[in-house]
Automatic annotation (TrEMBL):
The entry's keywords: Oxidoreductase
Name the UniProt record assigns to this protein: Short-chain dehydrogenase
Keyword Oxidoreductase: yes
Species this protein is from: Bionectria ochroleuca (Gliocladium roseum)
SUPFAM superfamilies: NAD(P)-binding Rossmann-fold domains
UniProt cross-references to PANTHER family, sorted A to Z: RETINOL DEHYDROGENASE (PTHR24320), RETINOL DEHYDROGENASE 11 (PTHR24320:SF283)
Domain of life, per lineage: Eukaryota
Family label: Belongs to the short-chain dehydrogenases/reductases (SDR) family.
Length: 289
């Protein structure tokens, strides 16, 4: 349980980092998927205000990470050191290159926030390595990157994998990871069609049919298991790994669906959504043992 029960859905990123400023000052924090007007930028701007030693931003298109870095550098009197890295999480080659750069520089990372992702691609798309794009980007890329820089994680560090409640709607399809269309999915691997329909994800007729929103939620379920696995593997380093969901925030991530449009959902601004992720990253009482 968080040490700040007074925080709620209206809490902002700035309020969170101010409350845990001692966990930010002098540390190195890496955020994947940093681009203007998204959760990555909201976290970056808030964290920069509390004197980290270094911020590291990755982006598929480095110009986007550079733009956020420029905003920080031009609007702060004493901005932190910022490194930007180009990393396409859907490409194993790109991920390995970015990780190699960090390892060779021997950069010690206190906090890693795996934030990047793609969502609701309308057509089934394969990555350059032949995997369904949501699974490749949101899970496999982060899995490879995080494991490749394990030696860079500081003793007592923290890893946050950004996810959603999607695991309750679409569990891991171990018999059809890449949505090739098998009709033989075991019952426990089939999506909850009723819950999916309530989200307005479109026409659903068969467990084997590709659906962009379900493929996204499928990758979210995998991210949850990534946290479980990393917690076990990094325990000796004292590194905790948590999963956190920002809530419903309309950002560029939702460009393929125009944002959720469900009257039962409560929307957050980017800084409010990012606040949940920063609590997971910074609150010392959330250590997993």
């Amino acid at each position: 349980m968080t040490s700040r029960p007074d925080f709620d859905k209206s809490t902002t990123s700035e309020e969170v980092v101010a409350a845990f400023s001692h966990r930010v000052a002098g540390t190195t924090i890496l955020i994947t998927g940093v681009s203007p007007n998204g959760l990555g930028e909201a976290m970056a701007l808030a964290l920069a205000s509390q004197h980290p030693a270094q911020l590291i931003f990755t982006a598929r298109h480095i110009a986007k990470a550079d733009e956020v870095a420029h905003t920080i550098k031009t609007n702060m009197e004493a901005p932190p050191s910022i490194i930007t890295l180009e990393m396409d999480l859907s490409s194993f080659e790109s991920v390995r290159a970015a990780a190699k750069s960090l390892v060779e520089q021997n950069i010690i990372i206190n906090t890693l926030i795996n934030n990047a992702g793609v969502m609701a691609l309308p057509n089934r798309t394969l990555s350059v390595d032949g995997h369904e794009m949501h699974f490749a980007t949101n899970f496999l890329g982060h899995w490879l990157f995080t494991n490749s820089i394990r030696s860079n994680m500081a003793q007592g560090g923290r890893i946050v994998n950004v996810t959603s409640g999607g695991y309750m709607i679409c569990p891991i399809r171990f018999h059809d990871i890449d949505w090739e269309g098998t009709e033989a999915l075991p019952q426990e691997e089939q999506p909850d069609f009723g819950a999916a329909k309530s989200l307005g994800v479109g026409s659903l007729t068969s467990p084997g049919d590709y659906n962009g929103m379900l493929a996204y939620l499928h990758s979210n379920a995998a991210s949850m298991l990534l946290s479980v696995g990393l917690t076990a593997r990094l325990k000796r380093q004292g590194v905790s790994t948590l999963s956190a969901a920002p809530g419903v925030v309309v950002t560029e991530l939702q460009r393929h669906i125009g944002g959720f449009r469900n009257a039962t959902m409560e929307y957050k601004t980017p800084t409010q959504g990012a606040a949940s992720l920063l609590v997971a990253a910074l609150d010392p009482t959330l250590q997993v043992t």
